[in-house]
Amino acid sequence: MTTRRHLLAAALIGAALALPAGGALADQYLGSYVARLSWDDHHASDGYRLDTAAQVVRQDRANVHRFGIVDREDQDDPWFRSANARARLESMLNRPSAMSDRTRRAIMRGEPLVEVEVYRSSVRVQLLR
Predict the structure, then answer these.
(1) What is the full DSSP assignment across 52-73?
(2) Could you tell me if 104 and 87 are in contact, meaning their C-beta atoms sit under 8 angstroms apart?
(3) What is the per-residue pLDDT across 19-44, written as a single tens digit (0 to 9) for each?
(4) What pTM was computed for the model?
(5) Three-state secondary-structure class, residue 81
(6) pLDDT digits (tens, 9 = 90+) for 111-127
(7) CA distance 66 to 119
(8) How far is residue 123's CA from residue 30's CA, in Å, rounded to a whole number?
(9) CB of 111 within 8 A of CB of 79?
(10) Where does residue 85 rank: exposed (0-12), middle (13-18), buried (19+ CB within 10 A)?
(11) How far from the centroid of its chain's Cα atoms is residue 38's Cα?
């Protein structure tokens, strides 16, 4: 083998070893934000009570970005400014891995403070208080 072929083979082997099992790339972490999910976030913009924790988190972002209803502890985010982005957020929040059952219950029963970790293809919601 020539030196060039050795280098190419080494590069291919190194790239293959760097990939996770199955060859899939890891979900890229983009950042996070903190939000107080207040009673305003538990109701849609036309007033009806929301049914799921995913809807409440989505409404919080609509309140922040579209309606200017910002709780004292709400942080801004660059990811969910548009209605389409918030629809995608809700879809990701409906996945079982997005939040624990305990977190879902806390959101539906109260006004918890949460951290939302944002990844390229998923989100993760955790209770802070």
Answers:
(1) SHHHHHHHHHHIIIII----TT
(2) no
(3) 444 445 689 999 999 999 999 999 99
(4) 0.80
(5) coil
(6) 999 999 999 999 999 99
(7) 22
(8) 10
(9) no
(10) middle
(11) 18
